[in-house]
Design a protein that fits this description.
By secondary structure, this protein is of the alpha/beta class. The protein is built from 5 helices and 9 strands; from the N terminus they run E-H-E-H-E-H-E-H-E-E-E-E-E-H.
Amino acid sequence: LDVACGTGRHAAAFARAGFEVTAIDASPEMIEVARRNAGEMPIDFRALDMHEVARALPVAAFDACLCLGNSLACLESDAAAADALSGFGRALAPGGVLVIHLLNFRLLSKRRVVGPRQSHAPGRDVLFLKVFDPEGDKVRLAIFQMERAAHWHSRVWETQLTALTPDTLEASIARAGFEQ
């Protein structure tokens, strides 16, 4: 299970390796991008928010759950993250593996710019630039994207990220039923 799959890069890598993959993202637009990027690979893409995992996906159906790209921090609070983690635990088979990627935002004392990064697909070029601005215990993230298919166009997304502390994250993971 690839939660918040974005462009589907990780889902496609696991599908190429022979795994059965379900990939979800809250954005229907990103699911369409991921489908295009995956081509004919047999990936089950679904437009679902990570809060919907417990309700919309079968119990104990997955051997692994990935939540990469700092996606868990996109939730509005520690409680929302705990709720999502509980859903991940419900979806995992006994002994399943949970992989979470989070940045330690408390290390940010000033604005940080990441990129630009470039992505290629047949007939498409995409440039990304991310800007992280600390705001107390939150971080404002702005993502700038320029895409060229026939012509160049640009988009900007902004969101506020939650700086999940290690203690809160570990407690939420334990409450979700994970033993290690």
